[in-house]
Amino acid sequence: MALDELKASVPAYAKDLKLNLGSVIGNSPLPQQQLWGTVLACAIAARSALVLRELEPQARENLSEEAYTAAKSAAAVMAMNNVFYRTRHLLSDPEYGTLRAGLRMNVIGNPGVEKVDFELWSLAVSAINGCGQCLDSHEQVLRKAGVDRETIQEAFKIAAVVQAVATTLDAEAALA
């Protein structure tokens, strides 16, 4: 099982990450589609070939073809949006906020899965990419759709753990 192999590769000094990885994926209260879509989108966003290689097969097994594609789409469109909106927010000139973005992001309006699932995946990717404006936007959409804070927090807990595991394992590979 890929998750077990990934956990086994976490070094002893990062035992908390190993435990958290097992917990946020193995004991998640999220429905399977929300869970594995979040895991896949976060594995892509974490930019670690090792982590993606280990988690993708299990995500593919647990997701429909539409959900699998939508999770990858969430990671792709948020890679663009997070840079764009984070930069616009960080610039001291507020006039950038009045300009038309002019970027295609049609998948957000028609992701091929339930809008709530796509928004949850987009929020998790935004957490990894550190875009506060996108985090606020996706959190507001989710809350308006009736999603509770505990569910939203589950998504960014997965993001935090997947990112930390990716950082740790990539550092170990670089030092080997």
Automatic annotation (TrEMBL):
Name which cysteines form disulfide bonds: 131-134
The active site of this protein is located at 131, 134
Database matches in Pfam families: CMD
User: For this protein, what is the EC number?
Assistant: 1.11.1.28
Give the transmembrane ranges. Answer: none
Which reaction is the catalytic activity of this chain?
A: N(6)-[(R)-dihydrolipoyl]-L-lysyl-[lipoyl-carrier protein] + a hydroperoxide = N(6)-[(R)-lipoyl]-L-lysyl-[lipoyl-carrier protein] + an alcohol + H2O
Keywords in alphabetical order: Antioxidant, Disulfide bond, Oxidoreductase, Peroxidase, Redox-active center
Q: Where is the Carboxymuconolactone decarboxylase-like domain?
A: 94-175
GO BP annotations listed: cell redox homeostasis; response to oxidative stress
Q: Which domain of life is it from?
A: Bacteria
Q: Which GO terms describe its molecular function?
A: disulfide oxidoreductase activity; hydroperoxide reductase activity; peroxiredoxin activity
Question: What does the sequence similarity comment in the record state about its family?
Answer: Belongs to the AhpD family.
Instruction: List the NCBIfam families hit by this protein, alphabetically.
Output: ahpD, ahpD_dom
Quaternary context? Homotrimer.
What HAMAP family does the record point to?
AhpD
Q: What does this protein do?
A: Antioxidant protein with alkyl hydroperoxidase activity. Required for the reduction of the AhpC active site cysteine residues and for the regeneration of the AhpC enzyme activity.
Protein name, per record: Alkyl hydroperoxide reductase AhpD
Q: Which species expresses this protein natively? A: Streptomyces xiamenensis
State the organism's lineage: Bacteria, Bacillati, Actinomycetota, Actinomycetes, Kitasatosporales
Gene that this sequence comes from: ahpD
